[in-house]
């Protein structure tokens, strides 16, 4: 493949991703932008393709063709980091739309129907998250025992929390420790891993996201995983729910995906919806990472400004990113 980037078609409006749509021939994933298939044997390399450790990529007509040899044991949310490291950070592929479609294709392609592949993805991811959260909790306990630093200082960092399960497991672990008793509403939940963890422990949980396809996927897989939760399709700035309808409202690694005015509305909406507490987490980046769909950086000063704007008691601290906790009742 030449050095020219493969990206989103200029100005084209693509149909939304259907994570549970019918599979293509041979278990391929095919949509308007990509064709992705799992292969057991590599085709002969050609000058029109890019080959990495796990992927072979070429441009055929209007589509990006991706062959992959990612084993079933690695079909989990760490795929995001794998795609970023091998294809998107080097610049062979570019764009959030393309990233999400290739990601979906790698999960979907292979033996079994689409739902079975997503169940494999969820099970592998939840096992990995549980392992990493346990490790994060153990590490925090060790640090606490050996240091006189405050809780907000020990283990703090500026990691983005994206890309690998190990990267965001400490964010989940910290968020779980900040919850008020009672129900939880997660805004911008995406695949809903944290919502699934909390609901699996008996919490009443609602996962909300602007993506109808992702919420349908979560609503379909959760009962098959033995978990009961609610899902809601909504912009996090306009949630169709009454005031003070959840004890804790979470907005974890969401605001960096929104322009400042939209982010302001999300914080105000979270305060409206929370009976007891709002918990916000953001990555602390020098430059917004477009691979993950970030459109802005958020600083600790931004978090403090949001806290002051509520007129309520709040705390801002750092732990694998920045945190704002607002006490609403």
UniProtKB/TrEMBL annotation:
Gene3D superfamilies: Vaccinia Virus protein VP39 (3.40.50.150)
Domain Methyltransferase positions: 184-275
Pfam families, sorted: Methyltransf_25
Region feature Disordered, mapped onto this chain: 141-160
A biological-process GO annotation: methylation
Annotated InterPro entries: Methyltransf_25, SAM-dependent_MTases_sf
Record key words, sorted: Methyltransferase, Transferase
Keyword Ribosomal protein: no
One Gene Ontology term of the molecular function aspect: methyltransferase activity
Nucleotidyltransferase keyword on record: no
Composition skew (Low complexity), residue ranges: 141-155
Annotated protein name in UniProt: Methyltransferase family protein
């Amino acid at each position: 493949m030449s050095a020219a980037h493969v990206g989103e078609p200029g100005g084209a409006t693509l149909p939304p991703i259907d994570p549970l749509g019918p599979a293509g021939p041979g278990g391929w994933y095919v949509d308007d932008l990509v064709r992705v298939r799992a292969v057991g044997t590599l085709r002969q390399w050609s000058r029109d393709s890019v080959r990495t450790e796990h992927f072979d990529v070429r441009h055929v007509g209007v589509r990006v063709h991706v062959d992959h040899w990612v084993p079933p044991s690695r079909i989990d949310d760490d795929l995001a980091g794998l795609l970023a490291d091998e294809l998107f950070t080097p610049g062979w592929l570019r764009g959030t739309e393309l990233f999400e479609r290739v990601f979906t294709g790698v999960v979907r392609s292979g033996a079994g129907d689409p739902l079975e592949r997503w169940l494999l993805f969820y099970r592998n991811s939840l096992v990995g998250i549980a392992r990493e959260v346990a490790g994060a909790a153990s590490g925090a306990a060790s640090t606490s025992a050996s240091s006189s630093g405050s809780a907000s200082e020990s283990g703090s960092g500026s990691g983005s929390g994206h890309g690998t399960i190990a990267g965001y497991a400490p964010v989940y672990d910290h968020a779980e420790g900040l919850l008020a008793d009672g129900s939880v509403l997660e805004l911008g939940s995406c695949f809903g891993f944290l919502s699934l963890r909390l609901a699996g422990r008996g919490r009443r949980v609602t996962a909300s996201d602007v993506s109808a396809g992702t919420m349908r996927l979560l609503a379909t897989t959760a009962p098959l995983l033995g978990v009961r939760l609610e899902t809601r399709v909504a912009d996090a700035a306009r949630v169709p729910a009454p005031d003070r309808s959840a004890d804790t409202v979470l907005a974890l690694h969401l605001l960096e995906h929104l322009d400042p005015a939209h982010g302001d509305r999300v914080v105000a909406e979270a305060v409206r919806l929370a009976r007891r507490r709002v918990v916000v987490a953001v990555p602390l980046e020098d430059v917004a990472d477009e691979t993950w769909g970030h459109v802005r950086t958020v600083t600790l000063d931004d978090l403090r400004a949001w806290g002051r704007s509520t007129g309520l008691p709040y705390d801002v601290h750092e732990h694998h990113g920045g945190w704002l906790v607002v006490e609403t009742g």
